[in-house]
Amino acid sequence: MPKLPTFQAEGSVSQLAGTTTGTQVPLTQTLGTALKPITDLVVKQKVQEKNFENKTEALKLENDFVTDMAKVYDKVNVLENKDQAQSILKEESDALIASYGDKATNSNVKTLFNNSALSEVQKGIFRVNTQISKNILTSLQNEVNKKEERLLANAFLAEGDFDYSVLATDLEKLYKDNYDGRIPNANLKALVNNIPSTIQIFEATKGISDNPRSTLIDLKDADKFKDIPLEKRLDLIDDAKKTLAPVIEEEFNNYIAAANRGKKIEFDITFAKEVLPEKQYKNYLKKYNIVTETVADAAVLNSVPLKDLSTTLEAIINTKYEKYGEVDAQAFENNLKNIVSTRLEEMKNDPVNFLIGTNDDIKNALEEIRIETNDDLRQKKKLEFTNLVYETQIEMGVPNYEIQVTSVNEAQSFVEQYMNADEGQRLALLQNAENEFGDFFSKAMNEYSAQGLPITAELSAFFVNPNLTKKFLSFDSKDEQDRLKTLLVNEGTSFTKIRKDVFDGLADFSEVVMFANKFDTSTAADKLDRIVEVLTYYAANEMRSGVSSKTTAVNNATALIKNNFRLEESYFIPKIYDGSRLSERQVDFVVEKSKKTLEYLDVWGVVSFGSKDDTIGQLELDTDMKDQMITNGRWVNNTDGTGIIFGIVMNDGSFAPIFNEDNQTLEIMFNDDSYTLPNTDIEMDFTKKRIIKDYGD
């Protein structure tokens, strides 16, 4: 075997002196005895490390346990029964302690955790008990408050005089029965002593809800509500003002609206000062002073004929500047212009509603209709009302084609009622409308149509034929229309094909309708389209009824229009008017009167169209106007189908009605059988040759 190398010392023992370690083993000790202190130190350090490990593990278990216990506390903290809470707390805490104890890696950790967890639970039990005590008291207070509210309400709502002493006794008993021994005596005594204040606070609070105006006045009166502390009184005053503020604002807006319509209603500007913030009040005061003075002016501006509106407005404004000066009058001018602007806008969109709001006669007439219970009298009053509405618009200078006889709301209500009615009810509604509107039925139907009335209703109203109306209404529903479409497919055709045949059959009528409505082509096109639609269903219904051929069915449908209208170059005349059939002589008379009227244009007083070019004089305008009437003058149907109106077809294809000095249009009504020039008392000579034969040809 190879020789192991050895270390060969080169020095002597004496040379090593002082170079050895400090640990020396006495001759009397063994090696084990000598190393014992070192061993004890290592063991001690190991024990300490283990203790730290155990404590750390136990602390982590404790923290997780506390997190889960928080959920248990949340559950029991809302309870009002301590025994129930303790039972839940014990059951769930024991389960959690056992669960987390089982997770310990040794018995020491488990012991440390158990001791900490039990300590935490003990502290939790105390907190829970405290919270439940609060819950019990809160619940008690809630129930006491409910009974307090009931006692107060019953006392103030009871019939007869309010008995203060009985209420005070009831409240004192309520407090003592429920709070004695549960709250400090000082607190209970304060409750009893505050009973007068409690009663008055309730009375004031109720007053703010029921009658805030008078309650506010009383709260600001030192002799009223004497037992309410100042701070609470101020709070109640503030509550009353907050309640009243929107009421005052609404009253003021109503006042302004009424004033701008020429009506004076009451508004307490002094009380507004008591309620509103100073800045808002000052703004109200300024407006109040302006509109108060312009009430009478508004009444004039809302009723003066349209032709005089501009000059009247200017005259009133000039008066304000003379009276108030340049600066202050500006506010009056703005308000007056706003009144005029509102009139023009509302008269355009909903004139009947505007008149109801500005004309007392019309408003009162409407109210008489609303309260009338006799059907015959109600119908009579509705006719009178409608006539008044019509005549008022005439007096205000509204052209006939713009006059309306129903408010938008009334029209919408009728359409809604019609759409929800069955066939029999629809017939009754149409008949009743005809009776109520009389000569203005066509206008009313147009206005109903604008709000969605089906074209079948219009056609039914026009033909005034019960059998025909029944046919129209029979296919008024979508289900029935779908059945007719299926029928056409089964007959080897289609709704689209039949519709085209109907449209082609009405080509001449369509051309006149579209020409007659150049100033409102979209409306005319839509109505014409709906007529074609209805007549297509009519043709399909004829085929279902046994008509021999598709051609015959289409001819029967288009004949309803062809046989009931006289077509002229630019207008048509219905042969049925106001429910009666016109004779050929009556139809001829309309045509003849339209020609004769044009001979009297000079005496009728046509006002020439204006020009944006200031260099063009009146003579030139008049000459151009006459040339335009000769070249481009045409009679067309008016918008409500009651007659024809004369005007000029402009270069862009639009239609411009002519007007006289009174802002009246030149119209001939289909029921006018007089020889009188429209809007005049001039009797026209029908034996006289036409003077200006080119007009309207």
Task: Walk me through what this model shows.
- By secondary structure, the protein is mostly helical.
- 68% of the residues lie in helices and 4% in strands.
- It folds into 5 domains: 54-193, no CATH class; 244-355, no CATH class; 360-452, no CATH class; 475-563, no CATH class; 573-697, no CATH class.
- It contains 27 helices and 8 strands.
- Strands 5, 6, 7 and 8 form a 4-stranded antiparallel β-sheet that branches. Strands 1-2 form a two-stranded antiparallel sheet. A two-stranded antiparallel ribbon has the order 3-4.
Helix and strand arrangement:
Layout: H1 31-76, H2 82-102, H3 107-157, H4 164-179, H5 185-193, H6 195-210, H7 212-219, H8 230-260, H9 269-275, H10 278-301, H11 306-349, H12 351-358, H13 360-371, H14 375-395, H15 408-419, H16 423-437, H17 441-450, H18 455-463, H19 466-474, H20 478-490, H21 495-505, H22 507-516, H23 521-544, H24 550-562, E1 565-567, E2 572-574, E3 576-577, E4 580-581, H25 584-597, H26 601-604, H27 618-632, E5 633-637, E6 643-649, E7 655-657, E8 667-669
Antiparallel strand pairs: 1-2, 3-4, 5-6, 6-7, 6-8
Helix pairs in contact: 1-2, 1-3, 2-3, 3-4, 6-7, 6-8, 7-8, 8-10, 9-10, 10-11, 11-12, 12-13, 13-14, 15-17, 17-18, 18-19, 20-23, 21-23, 21-24, 22-23, 23-24
